[in-house]
Design goal:
With 81 residues, this protein is of the alpha+beta class.
Length: 81
């Protein structure tokens, strides 16, 4: 048998790293091809609290409009410090 070379640990590790990097670059290239409209078509989270959250928090404070953050909850009692 000619060319009977065994794969050393270093060669296997290099081949594995090369394969992982190649697959990562390929996956990245595929994700770059996704149109922005398709990425934006995903449902967005609601901007305010749900009715369940609002019902519970209303027992302990009030919802007010903040100039910078929109609707926020302010507790009615806060401990000192």
């Amino acid at each position: 048998m000619t060319g009977n070379r065994s794969w050393s640990g270093t060669r296997v590790a290099r081949a594995a790293v090369f394969a992982i990097l190649t697959l990562g670059l390929f996956a990245n290239a595929l994700s770059l091809g996704v149109p922005k409209a398709a990425a934006q078509a995903q449902p967005q989270s609601p901007s305010g609290p749900t009715s369940d959250v609002r019902a519970v928090l209303s027992q302990y404070g009030n919802f007010v409009q903040h100039q910078r953050y929109g609707e926020v909850w302010v507790p009615s009692a806060t401990p000192p410090g």
